[in-house]
Design goal:
The complex is a heterodimer of chains A (about 250) and B (about 190). Helix content of chain A is about 60%, strand content about 5%. With about 250 residues, chain A is mainly alpha-helical. The chains are: A mainly alpha (about 250), B alpha/beta (about 190).
Chain lengths: ~250, ~190
């Protein structure tokens, strides 16, 4: 683990650098896939940029809304560069809403647009795994298996390595479009379903799980629900594409 | 692609999806940990978020002793600092102000000085200069900074009433808003 890099007076969190590198690597891939699917790649890049920006602003405002009295007495703190004063859930919701609004306003085909995001998203998830390797977050449960790693005072499952390896596998599957589901939007849904399935599997080896009554792991249940929704929509879009009236929509990915 | 082969391919996909979902549900059921409701799988001390804060006992500048584990039940902010560290100097007024505001709400602030890299006389001058009222602890041999695996100064740990570290901030300076929001979050936690 290599959580921080000291550069003179500055302390740089390596996980943040890995995530930035992930964005840097994912965006060209998204543009390339957009071009292949005949979507205006520069428009899509702008949409993604504004969604990320809105997500960042939403994350800070979401955090500030949890402590309105504190932030109203010092509104300039909204501009602070501290990543620990961000609300990831608020950021995700605001970013997603912004993405949907922009896609509609720019009249981008939603399903094909989602497909163009899929390989970039899968590659970004590889960097999320690398960020966890660097920071030591998402650590494994204590174990005595031969390949356990010593981390945080105990021998643990190398859950960050499992995560990175599976993300890399999903990325290769999605990039190579193998197995290729027939129809626009299905590659994106397959990406979400595969990552959800991997979380359902990998959560078992995590040491930082939050448990619900009955001993269910929170992340596992949420991932299972997301997986079910993705598969349901895959089935729905497959049926839609195989009906005679919408046969032409398949051509978007072909 | 003919309609028949398209239908056959769609059927294969549907079977695969159903099997995957069933496997996911089965795996979730068999990997439950009934005894671990709302409890971490590991409660060994480690200087990171989600773990018990490693225990220590240190002398204070005014000659008393403070043991972290004896503060269980209170919110503890542990700030590692040194007089020669510029961001430490910058964040000290915000720390003092926050301490003044929350000390009667069950919040303890411990300023752990890296005395092995500093001097007691410098620490005394610093305390007078900033009119500090929170306890200043002297890590004379660097054992506590080693225990907390410090990677830079200042480093601050926000510890909840159960002794679990909730936030770690490496580097600074912290703003008063940041400190107060982290303390308020800990005050909101259900005991």
């Amino acid at each position: 683990m290599f959580p921080f890099l000291r550069l003179g007076p500055f302390i740089i969190p390596m996980a943040s650098l890995a995530l930035l590198a992930g964005l840097w690597a994912a965006l060209p891939l998204i543009e390339r896939e957009a071009a292949r699917l005949k979507i205006n790649s520069s428009t899509l890049s702008n949409v993604i940029f504004y969604s990320l920006l809105a997500g960042l602003i939403g994350a800070r405002l979401g955090y500030a809304l949890e402590f309105p009295a504190i932030y109203s007495s010092n509104p300039l703190s909204l501009l602070a560069l501290t990543p620990t004063t961000l609300s990831p859930s608020a950021g995700f919701v605001v970013g997603l809403i912004t993405l949907v609004i922009f896609v509609q306003r720019k009249q981008l085909p939603i399903r094909a647009t989602l497909d163009s995001i899929a390989p970039g998203l899968a590659l970004f998830m590889v960097f999320v795994g690398l960020a966890h390797i660097l920071s030591g977050d998402a650590y494994g449960a204590p174990t005595s298996i031969p390949w356990a790693i010593r981390l945080w005072n105990e021998y643990r499952h190398p859950s960050q390595f499992y995560e990175t390896f599976i993300a890399l596998t999903v990325f290769l599957v999605i990039r190579e479009r193998f197995p290729k589901p027939e129809g626009a939007g299905l590659n994106f849904l397959l990406t979400i379903a595969l990552f959800s399935a991997s979380r359902v599997f990998l959560e078992t080896f995590r040491g930082d799980s939050v448990f619900w009554p009955g001993g269910f792991r929170e992340a596992q249940v949420i991932a299972l629900v997301i997986m079910a929704i993705s598969l349901y929509w895959m089935k729905k879009w497959m049926n839609l594409d195989s009906s005679p009236s919408t046969e032409g929509s398949r051509s978007i990915t072909e | 692609m003919t309609e028949a082969s398209l239908k056959s391919r769609k059927n294969r996909w549907e079977i695969l999806m159903m099997v995957s979902l069933a496997a996911g549900i089965l795996w979730t059921l068999i990997s439950r940990v009934p005894s671990a409701v709302s409890a971490p799988l590991s409660s060994s001390p480690s200087p990171r978020e989600g773990f018990l804060a490693p225990d220590f006992t240190l002398d204070t500048l005014d000659g008393n002793k403070v043991t972290l584990s004896e503060l269980r039940g209170q919110i503890v902010v542990i700030n590692f600092w040194a007089t020669w560290c510029p961001p430490c100097r910058l964040e000290t007024p915000a720390l003092e102000k926050s301490y003044e505001q929350y000390k009667d709400s069950g919040v303890v602030l411990l300023g752990v000085n890296l005395t092995d890299q500093d001097s007691v006389s410098e620490v005394e001058s610093f305390v007078q200069e900033f009119k500090l009222t929170y306890p200043i602890l002297l890590d004379r041999d660097g054992s506590v900074s080693a225990l907390y695996q410090l990677r830079g100064l200042p480093t601050t740990y926000f510890v909840n009433r159960a002794g679990i570290i909730r936030t770690v901030l490496v580097g600074g300076p912290m703003s008063e808003t940041f400190i107060r929001s982290k303390i308020e979050a800990l005050l909101k936690e259900v005991q």
